[in-house]
Write a structure and sequence with these properties.
- This protein is α+β, with helices and mostly antiparallel strands.
- The protein folds into 2 domains: about 375 residues, no CATH class; about 100 residues, Immunoglobulins (Immunoglobulin-like, Sandwich), CATH 2.60.40.
- The chain contains 17 helices and 16 strands.
- The strands form 5 sheets. Strands 8, 9, 10, 12 and 14 form a 5-stranded antiparallel beta sheet that branches. Strands 13-11-15-16 form a 4-stranded antiparallel beta sheet, with no helix packed on it.
- Helix 3 runs antiparallel to helix 17.
- The protein starts with 13 loop residues before the first helix and ends in a 5-residue tail after the last strand.
- The structure holds iron/sulfur cluster (2 copies).
- One iron/sulfur cluster binds next to helix 15.
């Protein structure tokens, strides 16, 4: 299956091409017109839901601690009732691979909808643009304001806008750090200037500035020049992938696009349905003209669809001059939704999700580590026995506190000395010095395999092999 060509036809400044006022603009700055419509509503709902999830999640407690908490000092990641330990990092790697395959599947099916509807860069940019419009006004008012000389009024508007942007950025940074530093401690610590963790201060500053810079200043530049996804998406696209596309046959019919009076029938007049109003260009958050064909900058947000449908409605034309479609449909060919590449991605994704789910559900939430004291092979006790020392580490990886008992097998008539009973809170690690003592007469060999067993109060057991070393067998 051949890939569809994606071209870069973005003019240096899109306003220069259409507005003729670029010379007065700061170079490269986009003045995006706001638009309402079905896809804008979908996008806004999706992005607000994600935003709410991002800010609210750190405040939710589960099992006596934050439900999502990446506790780096203890190296425990709590994610909605499951605690991941360093030995579970393979599972986290699986999660990343699942996310990547999810993205491949959705991109093959529906293009860059991730970018248009769920990407954090898109979400924060949308909020920043909303603030900008509330403070500085519509697109035309913003252009006028930027071209006007600096006055007290202009300064006030700019100051208010940047202060609000910084406040949102700071809230974003606090929420981000709150996933690592319990947010119910973080906020009071910040308010009382009592925060001691230098890394928390660093990441708070970093995320505040990154949000302010990315959503306030860089905006579409991040999608166009910094995001690697934009570059490799073409590999996943094919001629059946859903894309936002301009119907060139319809829009450029006969003598082509152009302005006209309302009421003219474009088919009878043999003219294109596009009235060349440029609204689709003005609403585009990445500053491209979709009528030039699919371009890698397009984030599939469909704002141009909403804009054009509004115009088509005003002109009493059929909607859908710009629409979600695919290359095969545009060419009048048969559309193949289920194709080998898509089925392959979906099968790989489903298999990985099943394996991940099975592994997580069958994970034993108890870990036992036994480290033999390497300082001495063995020691002789005052009562004539041979002694080996160990350090026994028990990790209660469950969400509840439990009592644990340690026992030994594999060495007859031996004594396990040390604390053999202990209680551990959820997520707690217990490290115990222990020793095995045995009469040298009982030793058959110089090295004897022994097994430590830790038994939880509900009967769950884990075992760990180790070795007892003594004088040569007699
Ligand atoms: S919004 Fe529709 S009619 Fe207006 S320029 Fe774009 S494609 Fe043409
Ligand atoms: S061309 Fe249309 S779909 Fe693509 S980014 Fe611009 S407005 Fe969104």
């Amino acid at each position: 299956m051949s890939e569809i060509p994606i071209k870069d036809v973005t003019p240096v400044n899109i306003h220069e091409k259409y507005d003729g006022i670029a010379a007065k603009h700061k170079e490269g700055k986009l003045y995006v017109r706001s638009i309402s419509g079905f896809f804008q509503r979908m996008r806004t709902a999706s992005l607000w839901a994600l935003m709410f999830g991002y800010f609210a999640t750190p405040w939710i407690n589960l099992g006596g601690h934050q439900a999502v908490w990446f506790d780096l000092p203890t190296r425990q990641f709590h994610i909605w009732g499951i605690t991941f330990w360093p030995q579970d990092f393979i599972l986290l790697s699986w999660l990343m691979i699942i996310a990547a395959f999810g993205l491949f599947t959705i991109t093959t099916l529906a293009g860059r909808v991730w970018c248009g509807y769920t990407c954090p860069q898109t979400a924060w940019t949308l909020i920043f643009m909303w603030v900008e419009e509330k403070v500085e006004g519509s697109r035309n008012q913003r252009i006028k304001l930027d071209n006007a000389p600096l006055t007290a009024g202009k300064f006030t508007k700019k100051a208010v806008k940047h202060s609000l942007w910084l406040a949102i950025s700071l809230a974003t940074g606090i929420a981000f750090v709150g996933y690592f530093y319990p947010i119910r401690d973080l906020v009071p610590d910040l308010l009382s200037f009592g925060i001691e963790s230098s890394w928390a201060i660093f990441w708070l500053g970093f995320f505040t500035l990154a949000t302010y810079g990315n959503a306030g200043w860089l905006r579409e530049q991040v999608c166009t020049h910094m995001c690697p996804y934009a570059r490799f998406q073409a590999v996943m696209f094919d001629q059946d992938t859903l894309i936002v596309s301009y119907d060139e046959k319809r829009g450029e019919r006969g003598s082509g696009r152009g302005t006209r009076k309302k009421g003219l029938d474009p088919v009878k007049e043999n003219i294109g349905d596009c009235i060349d109003c440029n609204l689709c260009v003005q609403v585009c958050p990445v500053g491209i003209d979709i009528r030039d064909g699919l371009q890698y900058q397009c984030i599939s947000c469909a704002l141009c669809v909403d804009a054009c449908d509004e115009i088509m409605d005003k002109m009493d034309y059929e909607p859908g001059l710009i629409r979600y479609t695919n290359e095969h449909a545009l060419e009048g060919n048969k559309v193949q939704v289920l194709r080998p590449k898509l089925i392959g991605y979906a099968l790989a994704l489903a298999t990985m999700m099943l394996v991940f789910g099975y592994t997580v559900l069958n994970r034993v939430p108890l870990e036992l580590d036994v480290m033999r004291d390497r300082g001495a092979l063995y020691t002789n006790t005052s009562d004539g026995r041979v002694q080996n020392s160990y350090r026994v580490k028990i990790m209660n990886m469950s969400q509840q506190a439990h009592d644990f008992t340690i026992t030994l097998s594999g060495l007859d008539k031996s004594e396990l000395a040390g604390k053999t009973h202990l209680r551990l809170e959820n997520g707690e690690v217990g490290a115990l010095p222990m020793s095995i003592k045995v009469s040298s007469w009982e030793l058959k060999r110089s090295r004897t395999d022994v097994t430590f067993t830790v038994t939880r109060d509900d009967g769950l057991e884990v075992h760990k092999e180790s070795r007892f070393i003594g004088p040569a067998g007699r």
